[in-house]
Design brief:
By secondary structure, the chain is of the alpha/beta class. The chain has a single domain, classed as Alkaline Phosphatase, subunit A. Helix content is 33%, strand content 14%. The protein has helices at 5-10, 66-75, 77-80, 115-123, 141-146, 158-167, 177-187, 235-245, 255-279, 292-305, 307-310, 330-354, 426-437, 441-447, and strands spanning 44-51, 62-63, 93-94, 108-110, 126-133, 198-200, 216-219, 222-223, 314-321, 361-367, 371-375, 380-382, 386-391, 400-401, 424-425. Helix 4 (115-123) packs across helix 12 (330-354), helix 7 packs antiparallel against helix 14 (441-447) and helix 10 (292-305) runs parallel beside helix 12 (330-354). The radius of gyration is 23 Å and the shape is globular.
Length: 464
């Protein structure tokens, strides 16, 4: 494999500089020819919220008609006592999807701790996408058991399936579909400052990495800066240190060292400019929950609020929350995590409406995998397909897209123990988001390599 100078630069550590410095590696010094492919008028943003550990979405989109509910409760009888009544049918929040007739009399509900998202669903600003997960091509139980159809590698492995969700390949993949979406927009001239095209609140994420863009990291209070620059009242010392960290006096002829020095200089300028824009922002009045995810969503809301100052028209964001690997004590732990997710997304959507971009920002969930319908005592084990939520003013909401497998074992999408074989691939889940974002067919084919294997009409195609 040929290693380009740009790819070598991507692997260089930034030393005392913040992780955000790496955003500009390989971007600042290179000119790119516009592709003129993606449609990039107006502003649009995608926001991925990743539920790390494998969220049990059997416990998010719950059966509600009496027969299905009784089956579900019987299968999970060992866990029900730990919920302290919150999974009693009388406590569930019934959903009224406009496509209820698609499910032959079956009904669905959400848990009481997700009242905010339930309200968004009922108002038409949210939708479920059922039984979604990594696939190479369509697959059912008999094909799975016979091994006649290829399946993603390293199924049920946390790291590999997180990578496969992000990049259609297990750990070691280079580019995520969020980064590829941003690539197409950048090459079509969407963003004057491409460094702000993909932004993460949790680290240097594969999902946001493209060939032309790298994730820019922010914290809950803005971009990281070099703390020592604020430690001296003497302006001469501060200026000297700033010149040192920005490598403004660097004169070496080594190409790689020159690149790193130039990036160091630009990163200091970018971080300071970002934080100055946040500091000048009229505070958003929407109240965010005082939680880890709530703080991340507030930081993303602030980033969107300064979009004009950043000179961007297309952005992809990534936030994450852990704690979903519920092999044990699920009834005690999961409701609190679901409450945090619901409250944070609900506040974020309200903030987007406050900013006047409620129709221009689409938020969606993702996770390593779902979990088994079968309980292992007081928890559940690694699964595959899972149900996800898409939120935004542009969403054709109050619908459940795709097929919700029954709360029983042995059906056509049951790999075993209620471990769901997905009926909607990650690529199909992502496709309508990419089209809404402005991508062309060729852009989508490059970003979603398995999409062409799914020739039947996409069940999610009209969600946006």
């Amino acid at each position: 494999m040929t290693i380009s100078r740009r790819h070598l630069l991507k692997g260089i550590g930034a030393g005392a500089l913040s992780a955000a410095t790496l955003t500009t590696l390989g971007n600042a010094m290179y000119g790119f020819q516009a592709a003129n492919a993606a449609e990039v008028t107006g502003y649009k943003a995608l926001v991925c919220i990743f539920l790390l550990g494998g969220c049990d979405t059997h416990d998010v989109l719950l059966p509600y008609d009496q027969s299905s509910y009784d089956s579900f409760r019987n299968i999970r009888s060992s866990m029900f006592g730990g919920y302290n009544g919150s999974r009693d049918r009388s406590q569930l929040l019934q959903l009224s999807p406009t496509n209820a007739s698609d499910f032959g009399g079956r009904q669905f509900a959400m848990p009481p701790e997700m009242s905010g998202l339930h309200g968004l669903f009922e108002s038409g600003d949210a939708a479920f996408v059922a039984n979604t997960g990594p696939l190479i091509q369509p697959l059912n139980r008999s094909q799975w058991q016979s091994g006649t159809v290829p399946v993603p590698k390293q199924l049920f492995s946390h790291n590999d399936q997180q990578s496969t969700w992000a990049a259609s390949a297990p750990e070691g993949a280079q580019y995520g579909w969020g980064g590829r979406f941003a690539d197409a927009s950048v090459l079509s001239g969407a963003n004057n400052n491409r460094e702000f095209s993909t932004i993460t609140t949790v680290g240097n994420e594969l999902f946001l990495t493209g060939q032309e863009v790298l994730p820019y990291q922010i914290g809950t209070n803005g971009a990281d800066e070099i703390d020592i620059l604020d430690d001296f009242s003497n302006s001469d010392i501060t200026n000297l240190l700033r010149r040192h960290f920005s490598a403004s006096d660097f004169n070496d002829s080594n190409l790689i060292e020159k690149d790193v020095a130039r990036i160091a200089d630009k990163s200091v300028v970018l971080n300071e400019a970002y934080n100055q824009a946040v500091a000048n922002l009229v505070p958003i009045s929407t109240q965010f929950p005082q939680s880890y995810l709530g703080s991340q969503m507030k930081a993303i809301a602030n980033a969107i609020a300064i979009r004009d100052s950043l000179s961007v028209r297309r952005q992809v964001f990534f936030a994450a929350i852990g704690g979903f690997d519920t092999h044990s004590t699920q009834a005690a732990d999961l409701p609190g995590h679901l409450s945090e997710v619901s409250a944070a997304i609900t506040a974020f959507h309200a903030a987007m409406k406050e900013l006047g971009v409620g129709n221009d920002v689409t938020t969606f969930t993702a996770s390593d995998f779902g979990r088994t319908l079968a309980a292992n005592g007081d928890g559940t084990d690694h699964g595959w397909g899972s149900h996800h939520i898409v939120v935004g003013g542009a969403v054709q909401g109050q619908r459940i897209y795709g097929d919700v497998p029954p709360a029983e074992f042995g059906h056509s999408q049951d790999a075993d123990s209620g471990r769901l074989i997905p009926t909607i691939s990650v690529e199909q889940y992502a496709e309508p988001m990419g089209r809404w974002f402005g991508l062309s067919d060729s852009d989508l084919a490059a970003a979603l390599p398995n999409l062409g294997n799914f020739t039947a009409p996409n069940p999610v195609q009209n969600i946006l």
